[in-house]
Amino acid sequence: MPVPTSIDHALTSLVERSLARLAERAPAVLADPPRREALAQLALCSDFAIDTLGRQPELLDTLDGAPALLRLEADREADWPAQLRRWRAGESTRLVWRDLRGLDDVDATLAGSSRIADQALQAGVDALSASLAGRHGWVRSAAGDVQSLVVFGLGKLGGGELNFSSDVDLVYAFPEHGESDGARPLDAEAWFTRLGQRLAQLLGDVTADGFSHRVDLRLRPFGASGRLALSFGAMEQYYQREGRDWERYAWIKARPVAGDLAAGERLLETLRPFVYRRYLDYSALDGLREMKALIAAEVQRRELAEDLKLGPGGIREVEFLVQALQLIRAGREPALRHRSLLPALSALSAAGHIATATAQRLAAAYRFLRRLENRVQMLGDQQVHTLPDDALARARIARALAFPDEAAMLAELDGHRAVVAEEFSGLLEARRRRRAHAGAIEQYWRALPDGGDAAVLTDAGFSDAVAQDAALRDFARTPAVRALSGRGRQRLDNVLPQLLEAAARSEAPDASLPRGLALLQAITRRTSYLALLEEQPAALARLADVTARSALLSDRLAAHPLLLDELLDSRAAGPVPEEADFEALVAEALAPLPPGDTEAALNALNELRQAIGFRIALATLGQRLPAVDAARRLAALAQSLLAATLALAEADLAAAHGRVPGAGLAVLGYGSLGGHELGFGSDLDLVFLHDAAPDAGSDGARPLDAGRYFARLAQRLVSLLGSVTGAGKLYEIDVRLRPDGAKGMLVSSLESFADYQQQRAWTWERQALVRARPIAGAAAVGDAFEAIRSRTLTAARPHDALREDVRAMRRRMRGELDRSSAVRFDLKQGEGGLVDLEFLLQALVLEHAGRAPALVGPRDTPGLLQALAQAGVLARASVDALLQAHALMLGLGLDCTLDQRPRLVPPDPALDAARAVVRNACAEADLAFEVDTGAAHPGA
């Protein structure tokens, strides 16, 4: 017999005291020896459970029964906090009991903790919503439907694997904006914000009965500084524009846990392209490295090396490993899209991404860590992740887990953590590799990451060999390189030295190599591309040339490896599709898709935009396509894509609300889109008009009045154009040029638009009309717009007032926007730049179109110049010089965009001469645009 130790005596004494407290409340409970023994084990495991049974002795008779349901009664609002807390304590005690008795495994315990949180949240949402509606009514959508808050659980709650005593990571959302229908109405955001605040307080406030669940709302968009509840539209916009890598990890586990669950699932489907990219996405590992580094620093700062969650080999590393692999692959493999970790780990193993034995070891480690974490928290219902310092508390945990002592428990813990740490490190770090003897550059590459001499790069022609050497070593350590098959590695070993040599021969070696490495990082898993690069030296040389000369195209290649098809295709060096071809190309891209699959259609349109835009950029970069022609093709491509996207939006809206008989929407392109002068990455300036009668409405099952119908249609179009897909998003949209700007309605009727242009429009708005044209939508509305535009532009106007308005606006713009300096010229806003030329042409059209209506026809700069020459407004020699100046500056601007540089260039004789041509033409037209002497100039 082992000799009892002081720890044994202390444990026996603790258990006896706990049982004595229970006997005071329920004397009969200890009469049964098996029951007494089970309660003794419970006392060893959990002070929290014993305290709960002491407060609620009636639970002793129900521990083996079914879970109790929670219902907060409407007429007992003051009792809700106590009722909720007592219920949660009772249900949590049941979890401890079932875990200790072996009735539940750790998976069931985690699911049980999640169920308790789900029920508490749903009961809270139901009760608080009814209470709020009693004062302010229910929030209704534009269609009149009652809306509900959607509560998303992130983290372990979303995965259905919540800790015993964990906080709950929540995000609140609601379907759409509206207003409540009570006597004291609130707008939707205010209503749902109040509900969300009260829900957090109901669950999280500490009262005499403790708490139900600590609520953490910091994972919402913009964190603690963000709005508490956002509409679905705002959520989509945030994640499309602002979403960061760590948020992709967070939303893998997202689950609607309370409120309108079906609506929540619909939003998650909308956000899926943000979380899961269509192609193998190794950028996820970069985000993981950053997060891991931050956590490691925090662990070191707070001395958390023994933390079960954050420490080396802890729970977080298992989660990161699995979630990283999900982010990389689940975009292409839907079977990997699991919220819960263990099913995701199993799916990764089944798909061959993790060895079966490895997955089994990781699952065993994860279950052990989670069970131990739960037992630590069950002790006192505290949110802790580290074994207690107190020897007695550690002994309690070890004995309750059936270990003979603390040392045995720690030995098993260390073994599991070692498994996790090894596998997690294997994801982020590379093994050492050595290859056979080869040439200097090949020898250098094959010696990486641990060997190799950076002097080889200096000899090859790289200026910053140290930085390039570090980049190559990092690349050699990437999991993508390490996981290559033998043939894949051989191809990479052939391709990368050739790329190094090609980059060294390029015009910018130190720019070319990192960009080329970024591309290789993206395609290394797709060895078919490596094979093409290996077998086609011309394509490899083209790649090195592109990476040396264009940061934009390099980034696009790395982000969208499908563009390599364009680079490697023989068509890359051939003719670019003509403007007339784009409509047929769009139809061809959409033809294989099932009707109604908006997501697939958007992805196809994005892929087409990427491919054709890339080909136009290659032709521009290779000087096979003049800048003016490139800009026209980009505008024509945008027009075709916009028309197809409008059809998708119309179909979506018609399915819910029908159509407005006899009426339609026209989409107008302003600015560079209207002027056939779009750049790479330009946004689209759009204005929307409809021709419905004031009393018209849609004919669907849920009809809308025409104004709201067409506003919804325009909103849907803008949303689709900006939606992020696996192939990127189509375009950023700017709608501020509509009548009355940001204060005006998104969609105007033809009558109101005509009245605005005739009565209230500023001169600069009439200038904008010079480049405006119908892009898509109802032809009748587009024709009516053309008539309004023609009447507006040909109207008589005072010569002096017109010029003064144009001069004043241009001077103001230059004072605010011109970034020119003594050594750099702003191609767009600088004196004698592209905007000066635009203002000159617009002023001349407004002045002379009344007597020369042909000036109303063209929208593009070359067309306007030719029309002004034919009308005798500008001399032919001046027009020819302005055409050359425009082409030069447009080309310089596109070059800057292709290399992701601001459109600021150093002066040279050709540019100086072009600027002088524009300045002289403006002066001859009495349009001097110098900045007012009192105005600040950015370049001064």
From TrEMBL:
Catalytically driven reaction(s): [glutamine synthetase]-O(4)-(5'-adenylyl)-L-tyrosine + phosphate = [glutamine synthetase]-L-tyrosine + ADP; [glutamine synthetase]-L-tyrosine + ATP = [glutamine synthetase]-O(4)-(5'-adenylyl)-L-tyrosine + diphosphate
Protein known as? Bifunctional glutamine synthetase adenylyltransferase/adenylyl-removing enzyme
Q: Where is the PII-uridylyltransferase/Glutamine-synthetase adenylyltransferase domain?
A: 289-427, 806-889
Q: Which family does it belong to?
A: Belongs to the GlnE family.
Alphabetically ordered keywords of this record: ATP-binding, Ligase, Magnesium, Multifunctional enzyme, Nucleotide-binding, Nucleotidyltransferase, Transferase
The Enzyme Commission number assigned here is 2.7.7.89, 2.7.7.42
Q: List GO terms (cellular component aspect).
A: cytosol
- Domain Glutamate-ammonia ligase adenylyltransferase repeated, by residue range, is 68-268, 541-787
Q: Which GO terms describe its biological process?
A: regulation of glutamine family amino acid metabolic process
Q: Name one GO molecular function term.
A: ligase activity
Gene name as annotated: glnE
What is this protein's function per UniProt?
Involved in the regulation of glutamine synthetase GlnA, a key enzyme in the process to assimilate ammonia. When cellular nitrogen levels are high, the C-terminal adenylyl transferase (AT) inactivates GlnA by covalent transfer of an adenylyl group from ATP to specific tyrosine residue of GlnA, thus reducing its activity. Conversely, when nitrogen levels are low, the N-terminal adenylyl removase (AR) activates GlnA by removing the adenylyl group by phosphorolysis, increasing its activity.
* Superkingdom, taxonomy of origin: Bacteria
Give the residue ranges for region: Adenylyl transferase.
444-940
Q: Where is this region: Adenylyl removase?
A: 1-437
Q: List the cofactors.
A: Mg(2+)
- What organism does this protein naturally occur in? Arenimonas terrae
Pfam annotation, one family: GlnE
> InterPro entries attached here?
GlnE (IPR023057), GlnE_rpt_dom (IPR005190), NT_sf (IPR043519), PII_UdlTrfase/GS_AdlTrfase (IPR013546)
